[in-house]
Amino acid sequence: MRPALARWRRRTVCGWPAPDVALAAALCLAAVGSVVTGNPDEGPLAVTLPVAVVSTGALLWRRRAPLAAVGLVVASGLVQTLLSTSPGSLWSLVVEAITMYSAAAYLSEGVAAVAGAVLVAALLIQERLDSGVDYVFILLLFGGVWLLGRASAQWRGRVTAAERRQREAARLAVAEERLRIARDLHDVVAHSLSVIAVQSDAAEAALEVAPERALAPVRAVRTTARDALDEIRRLLDVLRTDDDDLPGLDSPGVSAIAGLAEAARAAGTPVLLDVRATSAPVPPAVDLAAYRIVQECLTNARRHAPGATTVVTVVQNDRSLEVRVATSARTEAAKALPATPGAGYGISGMRERAAELGGRLTAGATRDDGFEVAATLPLSGIPRRRR
User: Fold this and answer.
1) Which of 16, 105, 154, 259 sits 20 to 30 Å CA-CA off 368?
2) What is the mean pLDDT of residues 263-290?
3) Does residue 41 sit in helix, strand or coil?
4) Which pLDDT belongs to residue 239?
């Protein structure tokens, strides 16, 4: 029922809103019937019939051009008053009330006040010309109708603003989700492909001189590829679920950093690992962020400083999880290894991860020409993701 009514309200008849056409037609039939039958008798038909048609037809403009509707109603009423007697039937009162409401509801406040004052003044003049006494009734009735129209305008404004905020919030949530997905894919794919590239080079070199030594790099390529597929499947599973929480317990965390270090060592990057955790639980979002930050740092070390020693330190205290990854300057032997250029999104992605959790991350060169990343991830008060 409601969808059908909404569709009918949106329909148009010859460019006019269907509800306004129906309203004007119904009141026009009532007005014509009233003046033709002379009930009440307000003067010659040559005067009252055109006035009835014009004043009820003015309702077609009540939303499209409220000022035009007010002008037509005022003009037709004054014409009938001057030539005969003022419109005093029920249909005329309904037309004037609807016109007042429309002016208040669809015009700006200042213009609506002027239009309402003009309409009330015209009605008071008509009452005066007819020697009537209903001045207080006119002021109270049409003043109340005007206030009702202004209240309707303010309500529509609030509804429109709320809908706009909801659309903006939805667009922001979609943008944040796309950014999170892009960041996770970057971390997974960049790390895994860099390991696969290094191990593939090692396997190729071994095949030329000692084929039996190529087995270990090939196994590392296979293991890394399978791990990457598992992480991508896990990411896709998260996307399929309708969960308002941050990544769950199945996501990799601090306990999996040892595996990252082992894989980096196998790929030729010396890694020293120092993890000091307490028995207190780590929120899943912080656990995953720490893992991704270390993963990205090891990937960057493998790309930009192959062969340089990297020290990974993870310390859990009462309030935060401290992650520090320091890569030393490249040795002369390491400088002989080619560096691999990256896309340039890694550090910004790590900063975004830390900021989402209410933490902070710094990254920069050290005094000994190395590079260090330090992150502080709070263990409480994690901001909830906006929907």
Assistant:
1) 259
2) 86
3) coil
4) 57
